[in-house]
Amino acid sequence: MIGAARMLICIAMVSATVSCGGEREQQACRMEKEAVLALIEDAPNTLTMSRISSGGLAVAWSSGWKTWFVKIDEDGGRMGEARMLERCSVPSRMPDAVEDGGVKTFWPAAEGTSFRAEHLDSCGFKGGGVALGILERPSGGRAGGAHVAVIRGDDEPVGIVRVGAAGVFASSISLVASGKKLVVAWHEGDPESSRIGLASVDPETLAVTGMKSLSVSGAGAGPSLAANGGKVLISWIEIVRGEKEAVARVRVALLGDGLEIDNLNTVAECRFLDCTPSLTVVGERFGISYRDDADDDGKPEFYFRMIDSAGNPTDSPARISRADGFQGPLITYGDPLVFSAAIRSFQRSFLVGLNRFDLKGVKKGGEFQIYADKSDFIRVAIDARGSRVILVYGEDRQGAGRILFGKVNCRDR
Questions:
Q1: What CA–CA distance (Å, rounded) separates 253 from 230?
Q2: Dihedrals φ, ψ of 309, to 5°?
Q3: For the segment 225-272, what is each residue's pLDDT rounded down to a tens digit?
Q4: Spatial contact of 294 and 248, defined as CB atoms under 8 Å apart
């Protein structure tokens, strides 16, 4: 359990709202359970969480030069020990991968080393497995690149394949399961041209079954994927020069079986360039969030908008809350509400802000905040089912850190 002296649960800056009759209304969200998943030697670069079809959740994080993962239950209890992910622990399971225009053996000189991941994403797939997308910048003699790891049982080896290159400015990766394949998109981050890489992978054989580079206007960044009923939706950022200043266009499109683009649309044009789009499945449709400084006050906020099953934006964007921290909003559908988690600032520190809203972006209650009195929370992942929300958040404790679990229950009163 997290000590009360170090962890404070702030009901919210707006936790006591005023109704039409003038009565103050209590925040409907409460922390049910909190736990420490891991103590780490350095602040976390990134973390991710996903559900496992056989039950429980998988959590992965990267800190320093290592990437770890652990399986947990709904109360944050470990289902086995945390394992460090090594890039070539079982060479016999590593097939040849298409790499930068040629076919090369998978890191013969890098066995036994882990990843310094710039960004992680994960998804569960049929059969109880978990796929992990790993984006690593080149550094320290390492080539870097975008990788896909497939994690099955605790006693089974982890299969890893490199699906493409990543440059010194590579920033994010996204991964979904669609049918019998995994689809991955990543920001290549090459100094000469900033593009979005696409690949499909067979989770059984780790064969790379398709590769493309997404052609974008200007500089591309921030891909996000969502899969629903055989359809894969992709969102990304295009930074282009406007009449007076650069703008970031949030774009969405459907991905075909051959990774081709269909029905390209623009969701928004943002003044804030790092708008970090996040997609989620909402029933038979999709939802998207992104950051912007639309009111020109120097502090980014985030917005929500629905997208129909054909990939067309609907309704108007709705402002949700501030999102001026290290990480933009991640959204998930709890049915009937959408939940979001973002890192934001408050009194010279960074905290986790949890919001919930309907499909038109109308907020329900105030923002639920989680913060520590002598450290900052700088990374967060979220999952929701009904009124219960599971959060995993990474703490920076002046160089060291922790990976924390929180279970929140939100009910209207």
A1: 14
A2: -65, -15
A3: 999 988 999 999 998 887 788 899 999 999 999 999 999 999 999 998
A4: no
